[in-house]
């Protein structure tokens, strides 16, 4: 974590990060995962088979849905019945498992 960024400013944050296994940001993202775990920051890191590029479309969808779920859980957003039902944590894990098996 950069020296100018204070841990107490990050603790209430929410973060979903992705990187390709061959991405030059891979190690930095893994380090951020370790720091976020130690600070108990709500976050999710997913690695995909690729280089420094956009993640697969389905992984981008998972990221947005996960952030929406976190907003609902925290009370920042009301559940919208008109939207496609938001997945729960178990469904996210299944999708990630499927994405990883396809690579």
Q: What's the structural blueprint in terms of helices and strands?
A:
Blueprint: H1 7-10, E1 14-20, H2 26-39, E2 42-48, H3 57-74, H4 89-101
Parallel strand pairs: 1-2
Could you explain how this protein is built, in words?
There is one protein chain. With 103 residues, this protein is α+β, with helices and mostly antiparallel strands. The chain has one domain (7-101). It is built from four helices and two strands. The protein has helices at 7-10, 26-39, 57-74, 89-101; strands at 14-20, 42-48. The protein has a two-stranded parallel sheet with strand order 1-2. α2 links the parallel β1 and β2. α3 (57-74) runs antiparallel to α4. It is flat. The mean pLDDT is 82.
């Amino acid at each position: 974590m950069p020296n100018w960024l204070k841990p107490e400013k990050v603790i209430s944050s929410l973060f979903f990060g992705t990187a390709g296994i061959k991405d030059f940001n891979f190690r930095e993202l893994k380090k951020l995962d370790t720091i976020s775990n130690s600070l108990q920051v709500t976050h999710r890191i997913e690695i995909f088979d690729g280089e420094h590029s956009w993640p697969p479309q389905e992984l981008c969808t998972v990221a947005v849905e996960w952030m929406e779920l976190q907003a609902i859980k925290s009370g920042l957003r009301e559940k919208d019945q008109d939207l496609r039902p938001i997945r729960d944590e178990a469904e996210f894990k299944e999708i990630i498992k499927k994405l990883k098996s396809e690579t």
